[in-house]
Amino acid sequence: MSDTLAAIATHALEVKHSRFIVQAAPATSPEAALAFLTQVSDPEATHNCWAYRIGAEYRSSDDGEPSGTAGRPILAAIEGQGYDQVVAVVTRWYGGIKLGAGGLVRAYGGAATECLRRAERRALVVMSETTIACSFDDLGSVHAAMGSWSAEKMSEEFHETGVILRLRLPTARLDALKTHLRDATRNRVRFAESDAE
């Protein structure tokens, strides 16, 4: 299981008079990652290079630096530190001394790695959805169990014979909820589930 950031993290680095500021944040969607980029980019800076990884989706940008010297090293730092749902923006102010391709890779990648290494982590909780069909008599038992297993009600449909609820809860708690409800209702509830994330 991957981690994400618990909060926005920052780190500063100076290499041969060039200043690098890293700002990294949790992001649950590409839109959120790009919104953070817009928020923290400095139009006065020489470059605002960035990368994000959100599940199987990832993007990076060298923002005018030589190809492959900024965005990819930032992305490699995110992956190398075991993060998911993270965006990192490295802003550079040029200091008058060229760093060369290798120097840029080390500066961007190193600054991002150090920022993420020092940042406070939060474990990503994998969620699942389950559908529960129960009689009206068992509805109270289902509602009572939801809080104990951190289950969130997504929908509730009433029919002639009972109720169908769609719940979202941490995958690690799904089996315990099923066992509890089967015991509490003498095996009268029925389940069907799908992964939410």
Summarize the entry for a quick read:
By secondary structure, this protein is of the alpha+beta class. Helices cover 32% and strands 37% of the residues. It has helices spanning 30-40, 71-80, 100-118, 139-148, 171-184, and strands spanning 3-5, 9-15, 18-26, 47-54, 57-61, 86-93, 121-123, 127-134, 152-158, 163-170, 190-195.
CATH class of the largest domain: Alpha Beta
- The spatial strand order of the largest sheet comes to 2-3-6-4-5
Count of individual beta strands: 11
Secondary-structure element order, N to C: EEEHEEHEHEEHEEHE
Instruction: Tell me, briefly, the overall form.
Output: rod-shaped
Strand content: 35-45%
Mean pLDDT: 90
Q: What is the distance, rounded to the nearest whole angstrom, between the alpha carbons of the first and last residues? A: 13 Å
The CATH fourth-level homologous superfamily of the largest domain: Impact, N-terminal domain
What fold name goes in the CATH topology slot of the largest domain?
Ribosomal Protein S5, domain 2
Residue share in helix: 25-40%
Number of structural units classed as domains: 2
Biggest sheet record = 5 strands, antiparallel
**Rg calculated over all Cα atoms:** 23 Å
Total number of helices: 5
User: CATH architecture of the largest domain, please?
Assistant: 2-Layer Sandwich
Unreliable runs? none
- Structural class, by secondary structure, is alpha+beta
Description of the molecule:
The chain is of the alpha+beta class and 197 residues long. It folds into 2 domains: 3-123, Ribosomal Protein S5, domain 2; 127-195, Alpha-Beta Plaits (2-Layer Sandwich), CATH 3.30.70.240. Helices cover 32% and strands 37% of the residues. The protein is built from 5 helices and 11 strands. The strands form 3 sheets. A 5-stranded antiparallel sheet has the order 2-3-6-4-5, sandwiched between helices. β4 (47-54) and β5 (57-61) form a beta hairpin. α2 (71-80) packs parallel to α3. The protein is rod-shaped, with a radius of gyration of 23 Å. The two termini are 13 Å apart.
